[in-house]
């Protein structure tokens, strides 16, 4: 398929979607909410790789961010944050890997300075479940011989 690469050893499938799966502007705080990737996710997907960009027009001197987690596992060490920079109207961005819950969903929330928070989420790939992909790997052991001269 054009634009798709599967590497079962690394268990990453890159999809290079061209459009945002979710974006919005002018938001205030948003409590934990679910986003479904049903219809996007292959059946082997255990986690989604997202390219996230956030911006807050009033972020100077405040903690403004968007957080991501697996539904039902919103706790320290399992939640990832994308911070708006501490300068007004500067874009903060990073890649986020979030484990998918039931029905290919993940949770997100927003901490904003007021009704001035913008975000853009682009789906860029998947982490595939090794228990599903393992049978499709070659069954032969590969061997290499190195000769040092």
Overview of this protein structure:
Mean pLDDT is 79; it is low at 1-10 and 134-139. The longest helix has 4 residues, at 130-133. The chain has one helix at residues 130-133; strands at 5-7, 12-14, 20-27, 30-36, 45-56, 65-69, 80-83, 92-99, 105-111, 117-128. A hairpin with a 4-residue loop joins strand 1 (5-7) and strand 2 (12-14). The protein starts with a strand and ends in a 16-residue tail after the last helix. It contains one helix and ten strands. The strands form two sheets. Strands 1, 2, 3, 5, 8 and 10 form a six-stranded antiparallel beta sheet that branches. A four-stranded antiparallel beta sheet has the order 4-9-6-7, with no helix packed on it. It is mostly beta strands. The protein has a single domain (5-134), classed as Jelly Rolls (Sandwich), CATH 2.60.120. 3% of the residues lie in helices and 46% in strands.
Structural topology:
Blueprint lengths: L4 E3 L4 E3 L5 E8 L2 E7 L8 E12 L8 E5 L10 E4 L8 E8 L5 E7 L5 E12 L1 H4 L16
Antiparallel strand pairs: 1-2, 2-10, 3-10, 4-9, 5-8, 5-10, 6-7, 6-9
């Amino acid at each position: 398929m054009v634009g798709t690469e599967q590497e079962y050893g690394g268990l990453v499938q890159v999809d290079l979607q061209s459009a945002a799966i979710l974006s919005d502007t002018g938001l205030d705080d948003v409590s934990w909410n679910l986003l479904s990737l049903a219809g996007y996710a292959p059946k082997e997907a255990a986690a989604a790789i997202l390219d996230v960009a956030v911006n807050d027009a009033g972020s100077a001197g405040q903690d403004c961010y968007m957080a991501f987690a697996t539904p039902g596992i919103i706790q320290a060490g399992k939640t990832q944050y994308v911070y708006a920079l501490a300068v007004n109207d500067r874009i903060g961005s990073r890649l986020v890997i979030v484990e998918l819950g039931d029905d290919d969903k993940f949770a997100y929330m927003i901490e904003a300075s007021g009704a001035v928070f913008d975000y853009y989420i682009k789906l860029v790939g998947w982490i595939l479940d090794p228990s599903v992909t393992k049978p499709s790997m070659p069954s032969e052991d590969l061997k290499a011989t190195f000769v040092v001269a």
